[in-house]
Design goal:
Blueprint lengths: L5 E5 L9 H6 L1 E5 L4 H5 L4 E4 L7 H4 L8 E4 L10 H4 L4 E3 L6 H17 L1 H9 L15 E5 L3 H12 L3 E6 L3 E4 L3 E5 L3 H4 L5 E4 L13 H6 L5 E4 L8 H9 L5 E4 L19 E3 L10 H18 L19
Parallel strand pairs: 1-2, 1-3, 3-4, 4-5, 6-7, 6-10, 7-9, 10-11, 11-12, 12-13
Antiparallel strand pairs: 8-9
Helix pairs in contact: 5-7
GO molecular function: NAD binding; oxidoreductase activity, acting on the CH-OH group of donors, NAD or NADP as acceptor
Pfam families: 2-Hacid_dh (PF00389), 2-Hacid_dh_C (PF02826)
Organism: Amycolatopsis xylanica
């Protein structure tokens, strides 16, 4: 594999940090969505730093030499379109950057629900002293749907807090070091009724799209809370809204949505039993620097002809492993 001479970086106005060594070794073309097609002509590799962009499929016709595409996220669905899937282009992601931060977010919203922090803040603003009792989280049952690195980090942290955690993944198994028991996600409705908290963190594939629909929410206990830190398209939003309005489930914490930004008129914004955050559960201080470091290391490996990190199986839609 010869050295890369031209690298296109889809970044908009915000360029990735830590690119000095990369710029010294290649011609780097920084571009926004409008100039992507032109910047792809003659390029050997593409770095999708703007990982929320959906511009790559429409510009791909100009990618006449690209052999490697790296995306600055764990999810690869924005770039896993048919032409790329069927090509010989190597796809890598930024797996590992967000694991612990997202796990902390999940623990945080679990505690927010259990300790009724949102209500405490409302009462504080009203200068009202209203004593309440809160829930314990120790001993509560959690089902983590998605058993990749992020799901495993969530399982470890919630277990450390005294919660009982099992997983749901591509294949059922026992004796898993982080989950103990892993159920098959294809049989999800069978395993939802006992969970106090259901955490969605599965990769978005044809099999997981719309996984949480009316049937899934109907299978949950009325006291269950649903947390989505995976992909918005894992959920049929209308079915979730109905489940919340009818108190089929007790609440939801949502960091990702089918449409982002979440439209102002969406009822999720104003529901008392819903926590909304703007796709930020993995974004900690310094995360952009870490993304730049991950790409720079893979770029060094590319130039040296060494095996790349985080190579995605384009048929599966994620880096192979125990999921």
């Amino acid at each position: 594999m010869g050295p890369v001479t031209t690298l296109t970086v889809l970044c908009g106005d915000l360029k990735p940090p830590g690119m000095r060594d990369v710029e010294a070794a290649a011609e780097v073309r920084y571009t926004g969505e409008a100039g992507l097609a032109e910047a792809l002509r003659g390029a050997d590799a593409l770095f999708v730093y703007d990982f929320l962009s959906t511009a790559v499929p429409g510009a791909w016709h100009a990618a006449d030499r690209v052999r490697w595409l790296h995306i600055a996220s764990a999810g690869v669905d924005p770039v896993l379109f048919p032409a790329l899937r069927e090509s010989d282009v190597v796809l890598t992601n930024s797996r590992g950057v967000f694991d612990d931060a997202i796990a902390e977010y999940v623990l945080g919203v679990v505690l927010t629900f259990a300790k009724d922090f949102a209500r405490s803040l409302d009462l504080q603003r009203e200068s009202r002293w209203q004593h309440r009792e809160s829930e314990r989280i120790a001993g509560k049952d959690v089902l983590v749907v998605g058993t990749g690195p992020i799901g495993r980090a969530i399982a470890r942290l919630l277990r450390a807090a005294g919660m009982r955690v099992t997983g749901a993944g591509r294949r059922a198994r026992t004796g898993d070091p982080d989950f103990g028991t892993v159920h098959a996600s294809g049989e999800l409705p069978r395993h939802l009724p006992w969970a106090d908290y259901v955490v969605a963190v599965a990769p978005l594939t044809e099999k997981t799209k719309g996984l949480f629909d009316a049937r899934a929410f109907a299978a949950m206990k009325p006291s269950a809370r649903f947390i989505n830190v995976g992909r918005g398209e894992l959920v049929v939003t209308a079915d979730l809204i109905t489940a919340l309005k009818t108190e089929r489930i007790a609440g939801a914490a949502l960091d990702v949505f089918e449409t982002e930004p979440l439209p102002p008129e969406n009822p999720l914004w104003t529901m008392e039993n819903v926590l909304v955050s703007p796709h930020m559960s993995g974004d900690y201080l310094g995360w952009r620097d870490t993304l730049g470091e991950v790409f720079a290391e893979n770029f060094r490996r590319w130039l040296a002809g060494e095996p790349l990190l985080n190579v995605v199986d384009k048929k599966l839609g994620y880096v192979p492993g125990a999921v």
